[in-house]
Amino acid sequence: MQYDEALLKEYYAPAADDITLDDIDLGHMPSHVSIIMDGNGRWAQARGLDRSQGHVAGVDSLRETVTTCVRLGIDVLSVYAFSTENWRRPKREVDLLMHLFATTLLKELPLFSQENVRLRFLGDLTALPKKTYDVFQEGLEKTKDHTGMIFALAVNYGSRAEITHACQTLAERVASGDLKPSDITQDLISNELYTGGLPDPELLIRTSGELRLSNYLLWQLAYTEFYVTEKFWPDFDRWEFLRAIRAFQGRNRRFGGVVNS
Ligand code: IPE
Ligand code: IPE
Ligand code: MG
User: Fold this and answer.
1) pLDDT tens for residues 5-39?
2) Which pTM value belongs to this model?
3) 42 Cβ below 6 A of ligand 1
4) Which residues are catalytic?
5) Cβ(57) – ligand 2 distance below 6 Å
6) If you average pLDDT over residues 211-235, what whole number do you get?
7) Phi and psi for 208 in degrees, rounded to 5?
8) Where do the domains of the chain lie, and which CATH numbers do they carry?
9) Does the C-beta of 38 come closer than 6 Å to ligand 2?
C-alpha cells in the first residue's frame, strides 16, 4: 500500500537513539503484521496499579500502532485482543475488557474514517455482550467502504475453535453433496477461517517476552517470522514497531527451500 513520505518522516521525527527510518527498506514491508498484545497486567502491577489500568493504557499503544501501520503503508494489521480462554479471568476483568472494546471502538471510529481504515473481526462475536456486539456491527457498517488498511481485531478468538468450525462447515458441504472430500484443498480451508481472504501474516510480534502462541492463528502462522519483545504492551510504540520491521527484514526466509547466495 502507498505511504506518504512527508507524513511518515514527520511521524518518526525526532529519531530514537538506536533506529531511524533509514534502517528499514520501505519498499519491502510485510503486507500483514499480526500482534499478540500481552503484558498489560504486569505493566500495571509493576506500577502498583490495578490490572484494569494496564488494559486502559494498552488502548493508547493500540491507537499508536494503527497509526504507525497506516503511515508505513502496511496492508493488514491484526491484533489479538481477547482469546476464547480469556473468559477464565475474573468476571470483573472480563466485564472491563468488554466495556473497553465497545467504548474505545466507538471513540476511534473517526480515526478509522480519517485514515480510511477498514475494520474486521476475527472470532465468534455471538458470545459477546449485546452492547459490545452492537458497537462491533456499527464499526463494520461504518468502515465497510474504506479502501485503506484492514485492521482485524481478534476477540473471542481461538485458533482451535476456528479450525473446528471450518471442518464442520466443510463436512456439511460434503454431506449435502456440494463437495467431494477430495475437493478440499488448503485454499478452501483457509477461506473458511475467520481470516478468509486475508494474506497470512508475514510478521508476528508478541510483547512481554512470552514464547508461545496461546491458541493464535495456528494455521495462518505456518511460515510467519516471529519477533518477541520484552516490552509490555503499554510500552510498545512506533519505535519498537520499527525494530520489529528491521528484524523481519534481516531474516532469511526459505519457505523450506534453499536460498541462493
Ligand atoms: C494482554 O495483557 C491483554 C489481554 C489478554 C486481554 P494481559 O492481561 O494478558 O497481561 P499479563 O500477561 O497478565 O501481564
Ligand atoms: C494471549 O495472551 C491472548 C491475548 C493477548 C488476547 P494471554 O495472556 O491470555 O496468554 P497466556 O495465558 O499467557 O498464554
Ligand atoms: Mg497475558
Assistant:
1) 999 999 999 889 999 999 999 999 999 999 999 99
2) 0.97
3) yes
4) 38, 86
5) no
6) 98
7) 75, 15
8) 29-158+199-249 (3.40.1180.10)
9) yes
